[in-house]
Specification:
It is a single chain. The chain is mostly helical. The chain is 85% helix and 0% strand. Helix 12 runs antiparallel to helix 15. The longest helix is centred in the C-terminal third of the chain and has 35 residues. It is globular and about 65 Å long. It starts with a helix and ends with a helix.
Length: 302
């Protein structure tokens, strides 16, 4: 039996039998390379312009956040947390930010907030209109769903590729990767929030003579605000989750501190910087969740 198996393996030449008879790898990869080269050669002016504008915007936000004295920033965020959410959220935010400052992470945290602010702003600016369009068009939603599924299951490192290809290393590539990684929840929950608006309310608005745009801006979006805010909250959290990975393409901030400490085998610094990212995430999450809860309570009372 053993001799028979050995003869069969030799006869089939198993090394060749495992190869698929058709190989699409070369034409596909060559096509992608040619397409990227075409875009870079013919539209480099556009990528350079976008890169310059984002760099200027990030630089101004970063410089402003660093210029503002840290006690003023902490008091402002404490006040916002107290008023938007609860007193405990305000006090907790104050303690978290004081810890950031006491561990000499304030400047890195401000750089992280500047990068994340631009990424979240772009994500929301694109995500909410796309979600509204998906809510108003079933065919578009059916096309969009598998794309969003693929985006949410794709490894986060993959999002670094388009940023590097078109913008090189630096904050702009990191922002593009963060936008691609963080935008799906904003689109999904905007679509869901508008579709969940009570049909009776929409029919009442139509009966009173509202057109499509008036229904959208005065009925559907206001009633969907809690769900939309939940999507924005998830977008912010995913943007923060991308901070350390984005540091691999040259982004600054707390992610760069974590990456540098890990590269130098300084475990203590890596842990402290990582906890700084966690502190920022908790502050933002609690304030936004407090706003969502208050909004839900107001809507239910009305």
């Amino acid at each position: 039996l053993a001799m028979g198996v050995s003869w069969l393996i030799h006869f089939l030449k198993i090394n060749q039998a495992t190869d698929f008879p058709i190989n699409f790898s070369s034409p596909v990869t060559n096509g992608i390379d040619d397409f990227v080269d075409y875009l870079v050669i013919n539209y480099s002016w556009m990528f350079d312009w976008v890169s310059d504008q984002i760099k200027i915007l990030v630089g101004k936000i970063r410089d402003f956040l660093i210029w503002v004295p840290w006690p003023v920033t902490i008091l402002a965020i404490t006040f916002i947390g107290w008023k938007v959410a609860t007193r405990n959220v305000g006090i907790g935010s104050c303690i978290a930010l004081l810890l950031l400052a006491s561990f000499n992470l304030w400047e890195s945290a401000m750089i992280t907030i500047a990068i994340m602010s631009i990424a979240v702003l772009l994500s929301v600016s694109i995500g909410i209109p796309v979600g509204i369009l998906a809510a108003s068009n079933n065919r578009f939603e059916s096309i969009l769903k598998p794309i969003l599924d693929g985006m949410q299951t794709m490894p986060s490192f993959v999002y670094l590729i388009p940023g590097i290809m078109f913008f090189g290393l630096g904050n702009v590539a990191a922002i593009l990767a963060t936008v691609l990684y963080a935008i799906p929840p904003c689109i999904r929950l905007t679509n869901l929030g508008i579709r969940q608006v009570d049909i009776a309310v929409v029919e009442a608005g139509t009966a009173f003579g509202s057109n499509t745009m008036q229904l959208l801006t005065k009925v559907q979006i206001p009633m969907a605000i809690p769900t939309i805010m939940a999507g924005i909250n998830q977008t912010v959290m995913m943007a923060l989750a991308m901070v350390t990975i984005a540091a691999m393409v040259g982004a600054g901030g707390l992610g760069a501190d974590v990456l540098l400490a890990m590269g130098q085998l300084e475990q203590g610094d890596a842990v402290i910087s990582g906890l700084g990212i966690v502190a920022l995430a908790i502050v933002i999450d609690r304030i936004s969740q407090g706003y969502i809860n208050n909004r839900n309570q107001t809507t239910s009372i009305e």
